[in-house]
Each structure stands twice: as structure tokens, then as C-alpha cells.
Amino acid sequence: MSKFTIRKPTATVSTASLPDIVFMLLFFFMVVTVFRDQQLLLRVDLPRASQVQKLRHRSLISEIYIGQPREAALGASPAIQINDAFIRLDQVQVAVRQLVTHTPEDQRGRRSTSLKVDQKVEMGIVGDVKTELRKAEQYQLHYVALPAY
Amino acid sequence: MADIAFLLLIFFMVVTAIVNDRGILVRLPPLSDAPVPPVAQRNLINIKINGDGALLFEQQPLAVDQLRERIKTYLLNPEQRADLPSSPTRAVVSLQNDRATPYAAYLGVYDQIQAAYRELWEVAAQQRFQKSYEQLAVAERRSIKRALPQVISEAEPTDYR
Q1: Residue ranges of the domains in chain B?
Q2: Quick one: closest CA in B to A30, which residue?
Q3: Which domain holds residue A130?
Q4: What are phi and psi of A49, to 5 degrees?
Q5: Number of domains into which chain A is organized
Q6: Is residue A17 part of a domain?
Q7: pLDDT tens, A92-103?
Q8: CATH no. for residue A85?
């Protein structure tokens, strides 16, 4: 006969540190998050390449997209997008120069342009954009590509 | 408290797009009308890509996957042939495409040219510093690049339409 019932120790994991962990993750994701400031109006299916390098200094990069418009009503011929808008070829130079003015003068020499071009686009328009970039005195260029398998 | 934090956490996790762009680095030449200094015919490595993305290497058709090895042998010219570059420092890769060349084909060729140089640099790094090119200091890399400079010249595209 037992007067005292021996209580079995229940194994519960202490959840006291749970908020700490959650907050840590939360802060990590809050810091890492970059809100997309532009909407992609073109269909851009990037090609693959083996000699790709990481792009650094995102604030010093201007992005130019070339591809077929997503909306079928806009036709099937390739178009150019800078920031949030379609840009005609003869406006590229001005648009690129405008992007450059956002960076402080001492860092302008480090600016570069990244070209995100759909892999089916013909080289004619790409070559034209390259010429416009040379006119705008932007010589550093990346062809953005996915790493090879 | 934890519930709200969880909610925010999930929101940020869904919204986050971790940007991880990679690209092939190119330096464009400045626009100028100055005449191009002449390059001896033997030092020019001519590569042409037509509107279908097919390749012409020194006037001969070639598959893209053989391009890398071919460029390497042309640059080094191990047999000292008189029609190949006299020295890698003088060699110029001349690339020409058509306006109708698909971008993927162009980038594939460009990638192969860069890969050829990269492999030569890697060999040179192993020989001279017993290290991989990736681990070299900036000055060491520069000395290798001076011995094997990557000069890619792009001609105005042709237009066959």
C-alpha cells in the first residue's frame, strides 16, 4: 500500500526560448528582404553560362531588360525596359545617364550595367543597346546568366 | 507575442526574394573614330556566328563545344606554326555576329572564349605559383593576365536580311 503516488516526470521541452528564436529569424528576414521596386513587363528567360561571376554593389548597378512583352497586345517584337517603363532605343542613352545621376559623384566610375536579355532575342537589338551604353559612357557591363548545370 | 512574431516572420519569408544575380563581365570599348591599329593576320583569331547560331572559326565550321580547346591551341601555338599567333600577348580574338544571331548562341560563344582564357590562366597559376588562380593575390593575377591578356574585339554585326 502506498500513500504517495510517485508522479512520473513528464518530458516537456521548455518553450521559453521560442520567442527569442522566432524574433531572431524575423529580424534576419526583415534585414535581408529587398522589396521589388519594379514590375517586369517583359518575358525574360535568361541563358546559362559557365563563366559567371557574382555581381556586387547592387546600388551601383543599372538594370536593362530586353525581351518579348508579356502582354500579347503589345506585339511580339523584343522591347527594352528600364526601371518601370518601356524605353525606345533612342531614349536608352538619356535613361541610363539619368540612373547615373543617383549615385554620388565619387562612385560613378564604379557603376556598371547589367543586361538581362531573353535567350531567344536576336543580337541586333542587344548590339544597339550596347552602342547606346557606349554613347552614355557606361563601359562596364554584365550579361546576366544562370550558372551552368 | 510569439504568434504575432510568427505571423510577421512568415510574411517576410514569403516576401523575401534573395537576389543572387550572376553574370559574364564585359568591358566595352569607348566610342571613337580613331583608326584601329593594324593587327597581323596571323595574330587574329576570327570567330563568326551567323543568324542561325552556327559558328565559323577561321573560315571553318566548328561545333561550339570544340571552341574552347581550339582557342587554347591557337593562343599557345605549341608547334610554332607561321599562321597562328606569334605570342599570346599579341593575339586578338575577333568576334562577329549577325543581327539575327540568337542571344543564347552569342553568349555561349562568349562564355567559351572566356572559359578558354580562364583555363590557360589556371595552368599558368599552377606553374608559376603552385596555387589555383582563384587563390592568387591581385598582383599575381595581374602578372598572369599580362602574359596571357584577354583581348576580344567585336566587329560591327553583319545584317543579311
Answers
A1: 40-154
A2: B12
A3: 42-147
A4: -150, 155
A5: 1
A6: no
A7: 899 988 888 888
A8: 3.30.420.270
Q: What is the pLDDT of residues B8-65, one digit of tens each?
A: 888 888 877 777 788 888 888 888 777 777 888 888 888 989 888 888 888 888 888 8
Residues of chain A with Cβ-Cβ distance to B5 below 8 Å are 19, 22-23, 26
Burial class for A58, CB neighbours closer than 10 Å (0-12, 13-18, 19+): exposed
Q: Is residue A103 part of a domain?
A: yes
**Is A22 domain-assigned?**
no
**pLDDT the model gives residue B77:** 81
Task: Tell which of B6, B16, B24 to mutate to test the A interface (max A CBs under 10 Å).
Answer: B24
Share of chain B above pLDDT 70, in %: 99
Question: In this structure, are residues B17 and A36 in contact, taking their beta carbons and an 8 Å threshold?
Answer: yes
Residue A38 contacts B where some CB pair is shorter than 8 Å: no
Span A132-142, pLDDT tens digits: 998 888 888 98
CA distance B33 to B46: 22
Rounded CA gap, B124 and B144, in Å?
Answer: 7
Q: Is B106 on the interface with A (CB under 8 A)?
A: yes
CA separation for the pair B119, B146 (Å, rounded): 15
Q: The dihedral of CA B42, B44, B50, B53: what is its sign?
A: positive
Residue A30 domain flag: no
